[in-house]
Structures are given as structure tokens and as C-alpha cells.
Design brief:
Low-confidence stretches: 265-278
Order of helices and strands: EEEHEEHEHHHEHEHEEHHHH
CATH class of the largest domain: Alpha Beta
Mean pLDDT: 87
Strand content: 15-25%
Number of helices: 11
CATH topology of the largest domain: Rossmann fold
Number of domains: 2
Structural class: alpha/beta
Strand order of the largest sheet: 6-7-8-3-9-10
CATH architecture of the largest domain: 3-Layer(aba) Sandwich
CATH superfamily of the largest domain: P-loop containing nucleotide triphosphate hydrolases
Distance between the termini: 52 Å
Largest sheet: 6 strands, mixed
Shape: globular
Helix content: 40-55%
């Protein structure tokens, strides 16, 4: 368990009516390594997140926090949720206070922290997400992208060890995605380990250190991003395609390690153009 801050071991879960959502999922979250969860709709990503922060209790298997089984009593859950934050896909499910500052302060206040500590945490979270100027803004006057960042700031103000983000880029335009991912880099720089679910394999390849692929309520593959996203069979099982940059690298028969960033992508395209001109 060295370096693993959060883990799921053979976690199983059924929704009412006998709908089997998780069929023995395994997952390891390593401290300080961005982790992306990939898979089609209905594969169990959101249900797994609800287990990883203690909202749901598994029918089988277990969730480990810092190497120890999660505790589901009131005291245990309070500690758990202060260490593992969760940001839902729809920010309106989490934002309810009148202003941005009050909403972000809600979690720290419920921890019983002193007013000065709460103010410091709120200011730090708003700054990290680049929304300090919105502190006094009524929450009903925010754009969707702003609401998304406020929801993340509220979770960050709890100073979690791990922050789970369910489809954080859904509903955002290209500029919104760039702004959000830049904000998340600031969050990671504060020492929080980030775990996000997404359908975007290109974003995953550029951002994540590790990736887990799910299909049908079970784990298909997990490991370093280049290794897993280079596994054509695992991606096909989850109805996913390889990242465009990786496909280009393969088509051009480039040697490994394959490029991962936009700058590398430009290099690949330029090399391709030069090859065509020859």
C-alpha cells in the first residue's frame, strides 16, 4: 500500500431493483499522481466515486483510506469526507448559499474551525481556482463554468488529501476546459491528489499520470497513462478509441516514448508534413 492514499478492493454494489452497478471494481489512487477514470456511460464511474468518499457502502469488497478500511459511523464519515472531497457533475447539486464566499465557507465552518482559519481557507481556495473576484457574487448570477469552479473551491476549502471530480469538463466549451484544467493544476500544486472521470481520451493522455479504464462495472485496466492508453484491446472493451496524438505517432511509426503534450503534437504534425513533402 506504499504511496496509495485511497483504494477500492473488489467493490460490489447493487441499486434497488437488483441493478448491479459495480461488479468487483479495483482502483488504487497514488499520492501526488493525477488519475483519470475512463469508461462509457453506465460503467460505474459515478457510483465508484460515491463509494470512495463514503456516501455509499459496498455490498462486497472494501474501500481503504490510507491503508485502513473506511469507517461508516458518524465520526468516521466526518473524517473520511474531510480527507476525500467530491465534486459532482452538476454544480447546482452542491451550490446552495447566497454568495460564493458563503458557499465555499460552508464546509470549513461545519468542521468547527475558528473564523480566521475559515477566512484563510476560503481565500486560498478562491485564489487557487482564479475566482477571488467572485467572492461577493450571488451564486444564482454565475455562469455554468463559474459554478463548476465554485463547487471545486468549496471542496478544496476542506483541504482534502484527494479530490474526486465527476466529469468536470462536461458542458464546458473549449476555453472553459482550458481554464478549468489550469485551475486544477493550481489545486494539484497545493498537494491535493486529483482523480477525475471523463470520456476525453485526449485530455486524459495530456493530463493524467495514471489512468483506469472501466466497463460493465468492473476494472479493465489501470496503470501509467501511456501504457494503458496504448492497450488497444482494453480501450475497445470500454468502447473507447486511442488518443489522436498516439494514433498519429503509430501511423508515422514514431519510436516510444510517444508524445503527450500539445507542443509534442505540433512536432508530430510538423514531422508528418515534412515527410509528405519528401
Amino acid at each position: 500500500m506504499d504511496g496509495i492514499v485511497l483504494a477500492a478492493e473488489a467493490v460490489r454494489y447493487d441499486y434497488p431493483g437488483g441493478v448491479e452497478a459495480l461488479r468487483g471494481i479495483d482502483l488504487s489512487v497514488r499520492r501526488g499522481r493525477n488519475l483519470a477514470l475512463l469508461g462509457p456511460n453506465g460503467c460505474g464511474k459515478t457510483t465508484l466515486f460515491l463509494h470512495l468518499n463514503g456516501t455509499l457502502k459496498p455490498r462486497g469488497g472494501r474501500v481503504l483510506l490510507g491503508g485502513n478500511p473506511g469507517r461508516y459511523d458518524r465520526r468516521g464519515l466526518r473524517d473520511w469526507r474531510s480527507r476525500v472531497g467530491l465534486v459532482l457533475q452538476d454544480p447546482d447539486d452542491q451550490i446552495f448559499a447566497a454568495t460564493v464566499e458563503r458557499d465555499v465557507a460552508f464546509g470549513p465552518l461545519n468542521l468547527g474551525l475558528a473564523d480566521a482559519e475559515v477566512r484563510e481557507r476560503v481565500a486560498s481556495a478562491l485564489e487557487a481556482l482564479g475566482i477571488a473576484d467572485l467572492a461577493d457574487r450571488p451564486t444564482h448570477m454565475l455562469s455554468f463554468g463559474q459554478k463548476r469552479r465554485v463547487a471545486i473551491a468549496g471542496a478544496l476549502a476542506m483541504r482534502p488529501e484527494v479530490l474526486l471530480l465527476d466529469e468536470p469538463t462536461a458542458g464546458l466549451d473549449a476555453d472553459g476546459v482550458v481554464r478549468l484544467m489550469a485551475a486544477l493544476e493550481s489545486v494539484a500544486a497545493l498537494g491535493t491528489t486529483l482523480v477525475l472521470s471523463t470520456h476525453d481520451v485526449d485530455l486524459t493522455y495530456a493530463w493524467a499520470a495514471d489512468v483506469a479504464v472501466f466497463s460493465g462495472g468492473r476494472t479493465v485496466a489501470q496503470g501509467p497513462v501511456a501504457e494503458v492508453l496504448g492497450d488497444v484491446e482494453a480501450l475497445a472493451e470500454a468502447r473507447l478509441q486511442a488518443p489522436m496524438i498516439l494514433e498519429l505517432a503509430r501511423a508515422m511509426r514514431l519510436p516510444k516514448p510517444w508524445p503527450r503534450t500539445r507542443v509534442d503534437m505540433i512536432g508530430v504534425v510538423t514531422a508528418g508534413e515534412m515527410a509528405l513533402r519528401r
